[in-house]
């Protein structure tokens, strides 16, 4: 059998274009329906679910306010709660000033180089301790200063032992000779020094004061001022 196509090529292309248009329109309609459905769902969530959540949150807040207002002494309760919250912070930043007595008992030389403390001032911000006192002689004062200069503070930080010089930038002032109430000769003085930051800190459970004096603890070393010793000048040979 012989078939003859009587539809021109132009007519076939037109039919194919119409079919393609129908497919595109169909998909466009489906896409529009899906998009409209998403918009409706989003609108329901925003104006429905979110509104309900806001209402629930507002109700919880109002219930909490009502419960707080039911307390007879609300300001007092809030004040106590705030103070409880500050306890840990204050505990970490507080100073253990009683350690000063351990420090003095460790650095004050034994008799006959006794040191009597008349007054002490602790500048917590600058970490400066100032001591006003008196000794029997100037040698006793020099012994006290050298003992202080050779002391180290030992404590444990994060499981490791740390040593810091007990006193740095030691300064002597207001040195004066006089007599005490019994008529005995004394030397009055004021000594100040910078101490380690952790010396009086509550973060350190305990502090141990050790005396070194650079390995020299003889009476002659402790009693003679360092300032009287100078290095011998180097002689240069003439050409």
Question: Could you give a short description of this structure?
Answer:
The protein has 239 residues and is of the alpha+beta class. It has five helices and seven strands, in the order αααββαβββββα.
How is this structure best described in words?
It is a single chain. The chain has 239 residues and is α+β, with helices and mostly antiparallel strands. The chain folds into 2 domains: 8-70; 99-228, Gyrase A, domain 2. It is built from 5 helices and 7 strands; from the N terminus they run H-H-H-E-E-H-E-E-E-E-E-H. The strands form 2 sheets. The protein has a 4-stranded antiparallel β-sheet with strand order 1-2-6-5. It has a 3-stranded antiparallel β-sheet with strand order 4-3-7. Strand 5 (168-179) and strand 6 (185-194) form a beta hairpin. The protein is elongated and about 145 Å long.
Q: What descriptors fit this protein?
A:
239 residues; alpha+beta; Gyrase A, domain 2; 2 domains; 4-stranded antiparallel sheet; 3-stranded antiparallel sheet; 5 helices; 7 strands; disordered C terminus
Instruction: Specify the overall morphology.
Output: elongated
The CATH architecture of the largest domain can be given as 2-Layer Sandwich
Give the CATH superfamily of the largest domain. General secretion pathway protein M, EpsM
Spans of at least 5 consecutive residues whose pLDDT stays below 50 are 214-239
Question: What's the total helix number?
Answer: 5
């Amino acid at each position: 059998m012989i078939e003859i196509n009587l539809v021109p090529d132009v007519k076939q292309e037109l039919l194919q274009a119409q079919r393609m248009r129908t497919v595109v329109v169909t998909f466009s309609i489906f896409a529009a329906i899906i998009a409209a459905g998403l918009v409706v769902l989003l609108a329901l969530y925003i104006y429905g679910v979110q509104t309900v959540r806001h209402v629930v949150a507002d109700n919880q807040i109002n219930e909490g306010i009502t419960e707080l207002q039911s307390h007879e002494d609300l300001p007092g309760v809030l004040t106590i709660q705030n103070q409880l919250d500050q306890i840990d912070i204050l505990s970490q930043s507080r100073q253990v000033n009683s350690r000063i007595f351990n420090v003095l008992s460790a650095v004050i030389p034994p008799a006959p180089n006794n040191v009597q403390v008349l007054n002490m001032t602790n500048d917590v911000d600058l970490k400066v301790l100032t001591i006003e006192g008196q000794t029997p002689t100037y040698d006793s004062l020099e012994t006290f200063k050298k003992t202080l200069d050779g002391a180290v503070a030992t404590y444990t930080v994060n499981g490791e032992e740390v040593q810091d010089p007990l006193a740095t930038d030691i300064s002597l002032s207001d040195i004066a000779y006089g007599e005490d109430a019994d008529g005995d000769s004394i030397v009055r003085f004021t000594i100040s020094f910078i101490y380690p930051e952790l010396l009086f800190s509550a973060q350190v459970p305990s502090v141990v004061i050790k005396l070194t004096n650079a390995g020299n603890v003889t009476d002659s070393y402790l009693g003679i001022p360092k300032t009287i010793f100078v290095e011998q000048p180097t002689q240069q040979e003439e050409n």
